[in-house]
Structures are given as C-alpha cells and as structure tokens.
Design goal:
The chain has 518 residues and is an alpha+beta fold. 57% of the residues lie in helices and 9% in strands. The chain has 22 helices and 11 strands. The strands form 4 sheets. A 4-stranded antiparallel beta sheet has the order 9-10-6-11. The chain has a 3-stranded antiparallel beta sheet with strand order 2-1-5, with no helix packed on it.
Length: 518
C-alpha cells in the first residue's frame, strides 16, 4: 500500500483502483475501510485512515509528513530511510487490518448498511477505475476559441459596468464594488458581512439585479469570468498524454451517497446557459463513435411520489403526464390545456422547492411574488397533494426520533443537528431530512444502473464505454454501427435499476459531442 502511495503521489483514493486494475481483492485495503466507514455513517467522520483510526480505534497514527518531510523537502517513500519506513509501513498495515475488522463487525449489525457496502459501494470501485482510466476526448481548439470569445465578452461587460457607474473600477474588488453600489449609487444594503460591510455576495446581487442594472451586469461578468477561468482556460491544461481528460471520482465525500469529481469537477459544468452548453460541445466522441447521454427524468420527484404514496402524484407519473403542468392545474384550479407558461413555471418551482424544504419566503424570492401569495401556493399544493404533506411531517418525526433517515436501499443519512438548540441549524437538518431520502435514493439508483450497464458491456463484449457520471446522467462512448441498439439497451437497464411505484423514465440521445447528446 505504501508503494502505491509513492507511485501516485500519496493520493489514497487510488489504492483500491490499483487493486482493481490487477484483479486483487479489496478485503483489508485502506480503500475497503474507507468504503466501510462511508456505508456505516457518511457524516460521522472523515474517511481517511488517520481520522478513522482516531474515531473508531482511539489511536493517533504517524503522519506521512513525519517520515517523508513536508513541502518542497518531501521525498518519495522509496527515499525514506528503511529504519524509519519499516515501522511506518507496519503501522499502516496493522491499522488498516484493525479498521477493516472493526468496521466489518459494525456493518454486520445492520443488514441494510452491509448491503449498501457489499452491493453498491464496493462493486463500484472497478467501474470508476475504468471510467477514470479511459477518460473523455476534448476538442481543445474549440475551447481556445471559446476562451477568446469569453475574454471579449468580459471586456464588453466591463465597459458597460464602467459606463453605468460613471467611472472605471475593478469589478473583481469587493471593496471598490461596495463603494460604487452602496456609497456612490445608494443601492439598499440587503445584508452585511461579519465585519459589518455591505455584502456583495451573489445572492445579494441577484436580488438587487431585479431592480438595478449595474448588479445585473456585474453578475453576468462574474459568470463569464468563471466559465473562462474554470473551464475554457483550465480544461486544456488537464489533458493527459493520451489527449484525453481523466477526472477523479470520489465515493466517500457527499453525505447523500452521490459521487463527486475533481480535476475537473464535472458536476459543475453549466447546462442552463448557452455559454455553459458550448463548453459541453468540447467534450467529443472519437472517430467511429458517438456520445450517448442517458438522464433520469425528474427522478427525485418520482421517488417523492413513491415515498409519499400521494394519489395525485402517482397518477400523474403513471399516465406520463407533464407533472409540472398537472401541478399547475391542481394548484391554480384550471384545466390542463389552459395552463399558462407562467403557471407551469410557478408549479415547477413549487414541485422542486418543496422537496428541498423551501419555505414560502424562499418561494416568494424565487418567483418574485409576495410572501402571502407564495404561502397561498404552498397551502394549495398541500391541499391537492395531502400525501406529500403527510410524508414530510412523518419524515420530520422519524428524523427527530431516530437521528437519521433512510434511502430506498437502506443507506442511512444521519442528521446530527436535528435536535440542535440553534433553530437555524435544526431547521436546516429538518429540510435535509425531507430531501435526503430522495437525493440519496437517486444516488443509489444511478450507482446500481452503472453497475448493471458496466457488467453488460463487459460480459456481452459491447463496443461501448462508460466515460462520465454527472448528477442523474450517464455518458458513454458507443460505436456508430450499434449506437441505436446500445441506446435502447442502456435506457431499459437504467429504467429498471430498481422498482418503485412509478416508472423510472430515462431520456437518452446520441451526438458527436456532449451537448448534442444531452
């Protein structure tokens, strides 16, 4: 295990992937203990060996920097004196085995958690390894063109902001921005920083932008600047020698069970704006292949329908109705065919807002309406969908009683702040209690789908590869001559990854790039 650390620059997450590459068992490895800990309680501790040893065994371990040095003076493990390296390596092996045995015993006490580990998390390691190793092809020339265009757009927005302010200033300086907006232009101070200065945070500027043009321009500038620095400038620098981008997936990070990724973070590549979608156009298929994107449609709302057993929601999904239009018809008391686009937009905000625990105040801000009107919408929604209201109240009670909620597959999502005396923390935990079973169940479902699709591709010798997983979406490279058949099979396998009381709908498409396929 320590030899592996030296090879990969001491990134522990790769240990299990190296074992998977050579078909060596995971039992007793550090990655195995990390996944056991994650399945047991995703929020109880960090899942690195040092933290786990302290948390579960009460032991303080020797830090890697102690034996190899720090910063520029750090050496690779093969350069450490044997008299120092041997005890460190022996301690690592000893602690890893103790953790494996201890956590295995703890998992065995709760069958559902043992199943999450053995049926979902552990089998997923070789799948993620294959995805990381294969990577995705990038069109760097297209990204360079986009960077130039974004730079031009930033310059235009900067000029516009200066004209609106009546003077030149640094748009990236919170201090100068505060002086321009609040001292010189007299905009209302909506919130202050901990140091007492007017806040220029994004949500504050967004609220001001509803009435004032300068905050709107500044927000657009920030958005364009982030796209340029985070994606169009940076992605080409991450390309490996094989001309492909190899992200790193992390299993033991998000409390809900969702995967995260880094270098780059694929989960944050924008899709809601035209500029963001253009970045996805740079993710391309190699010659002879196409990209297949298969995305679960409204999966968390479907899980809500199943968990709440609300008759109205179950009926809407069973009939494959436009659930936002159906909600609008119920809430506004109109027929389906007379629902306006504004009514559907409001219903969509209600549908998604409520499953994230949004209050009437939050809904009012999102729809730019009065709080009283927003509360009326919420009351009407619960009147038309009483099963949802009952589920939310039942889930709050269970969370308070048990200290956790569960996904459909038995993953426990602990809520340590559910009984906090701090009202804000307690309310946040209650909102999480409502959403976590849906978000966590969605995470479990797409992991099961990944396992099934990966096994099918391997066992049937299909000319396709899983290359990305982003939120509720799987992206594959598929051979041109079998693309339609592969899309049909992947769609079917994802739709039956687990059985709930409404259909799991999957939207899939093919394209020469990720944007075309989405």
């Amino acid at each position: 295990e320590d030899a592996n650390k030296a090879k990969v620059g001491h990134h522990l997450k790769y240990d299990a992937h190296i074992f998977a590459r050579y078909d060596i068992t995971l039992a007793g490895t550090l990655e195995d203990s990390m996944l056991q800990s994650y399945a047991l309680n995703s929020t109880a501790s960090r899942h690195d060996m040092d933290s786990l040893a302290q948390h579960y065994l009460g032991l303080a371990t020797t830090k890697y920097e102690t034996v190899a040095g720090k910063g520029a003076k750090q050496v690779t493990f093969d350069k450490v004196d044997l008299d120092i390296a041997a005890p460190y390596a022996a301690e690592d092996a000893d602690i890893t085995l103790r953790l494996h045995e201890h956590l295995g015993t703890e998992l065995a006490k709760t069958q559902s958690l043992a199943n999450v580990y053995s049926d979902i998390e552990r089998p997923l390691v070789p799948v993620l390894f294959d995805m990381e190793e294969h990577g995705v092809l990038l069109d760097c020339d297209a990204l360079h063109v986009q960077s130039k265009e974004l730079a031009d757009s930033m310059a235009e927005l900067e000029q516009k902001a200066h004209a609106l302010a009546g003077k030149s200033f640094n748009l990236g300086s919170p201090k100068q921005l505060t002086e321009i907006l609040f001292d010189e232009q007299g905009l209302p101070v909506l919130r202050k920083t901990p140091k007492g200065a007017p806040s220029t945070a994004e949500d504050v500027l967004a609220e001001l932008a509803a009435e004032y043009e300068l905050p709107e321009v500044i927000l657009e500038y920030r958005s364009v600047s982030k796209l340029k620095s985070t994606y169009t400038d940076k992605l080409p620098t991450l390309i490996a020698d094989d001309d492909r981008l190899h992200t790193s997936y992390h299993q033991a990070v998000a409390a809900t069970g969702r995967l995260s990724s880094s270098d780059p973070n694929l989960q944050n590549i924008p899709i809601r704006t035209a500029m963001g979608r253009r970045i996805r156009q740079a993710f391309i298929a190699p010659k002879g292949y196409r990209l297949l994107a298969a995305d679960y449609s409204q999966i968390e709302l479907r899980i809500m329908a199943h968990l709440s057993q609300d008759a109205g929601l179950l009926k809407a999904f069973a009939e494959d109705a436009d659930v936002h239009r159906a909600t609008a018809a119920e809430v506004f008391g109109v027929s389906l065919d007379t629902v306006t686009s504004d009514q559907r937009r409001s219903a969509k905000a209600i549908n998604f807002g409520l499953i994230y625990g949004m209050s009437a105040f939050g809904l009012a801000r999102q729809l730019n309406i009065g709080r009283g009107e927003a509360q009326k919408y919420v009351d009407l929604y619960f009147e038309r969908y009483p099963g949802v209201h009952d589920y939310m109240e039942r889930t709050r009670r269970q969370a308070h009683d048990n200290g956790y909620v569960e996904t459909l597959k038995g993953r426990r999502l602990y809520l340590p702040e559910i009984k906090s005396r701090n009202a804000q923390r307690r309310q946040y935990a209650e909102r999480s209690a409502i959403n976590a079973p849906m978000q966590g169940s969605a995470a479990d479902i797409i992991k099961l789908a990944m396992l099934d699709v990966h096994h099918w591709i391997r066992s049937a010798n299909i000319d396709a590869r899983l290359i990305m997983q982003v939120h509720d979406e799987l992206v594959l490279e598929v051979a041109n001559d079998a693309a339609e058949q592969i899309m049909s099979e992947v769609t079917q396998r994802m739709s039956r990854a687990t059985m709930i009381d409404v259909p799991l709908k999957v939207d899939a498409a093919l394209g020469d790039n990720w944007d075309e396929a989405h």
